[in-house]
Amino acid sequence: MTALAGPVAARAERPVLAVDRRRLRRRRALRRGAGTGIQAALIVLWCLLPVYWMVAASLRQPGEVYSTSPFPADPTLANYVDAFDPYALLLPGLVHSFGIAALVTGIVLVLGVSGGYALARFRFPGRGVVTGAVLAASMLPGVTLLTPLFAFFSTIGWASTFQALIIPYIALSMPFAAYTLQIFLRDLPWELEEAARVDGCSRSRAFVSVMLPLMAPAVVTVALLTFIANWNEYLVASVLSVQPTITVTVVVANFSAELTGGGATMAAGVVAAGPLVLLVLLFQRRITSGLTAGSVKG
Predict the structure, then answer these.
(1) Superfamily for 78-289?
(2) Per-residue pLDDT tens for 47-63?
């Protein structure tokens, strides 16, 4: 009986030890999850607090704009009415920015898809140099171009015209689009294009019918980032944009000089950011769900 007691006791302890291990793993997982949740909450709070403060300030009474209270004491829309005053030019600025950003995005996508395809698909001497030049051009600070652009467009009589904004925007946005798309194109299964060509498709038809649908996630992402970048552009617009072609960023920057009180400035900032927030919310699911589409070879 004494000899059997040891093995029996050992077998009885094993389930207890297994339960303890599971509890320990569960506690560790809970601690890690709690730590991750706290970190995520702090990041969200850090990012959204300025946005909330701008929205709250836009709803305050004119004499309470600089109050430190986190909530408006008596919310009002008077600041938004002042922001849309005809002399403030907010509505024309919104229309101009939307038209310019949409047109530039469309042109950049056409040029970027074509350039990205050429860099990813064709082998030619100096391809690495061209790719490096495209990447370097995408990093060029826009402020270095202000004086040459102003002098050039003034000389040819294009100062204060829409083309004086559209052409530099295309030049500044196209390198990023071409470089990003060629990275995505390199991971696509080129065997599908070759199979389409074997079936009788031309190169252009095979690209449009087979490769372009696989590029949809990258194209949507590049289009979204290009539109946002051109909507938010201020440096070039501050020099080349005046009242006939004024953009929303220049309008918001001029608010403090044109209108008294910071409430209207805050309201104009909320209105200017609204289309971008809506755009991201509309396309977020498509971008996240199809981000890896067509990126696996085989």
Answers:
(1) MetI-like (1.10.3720.10)
(2) 888 888 888 888 888 77
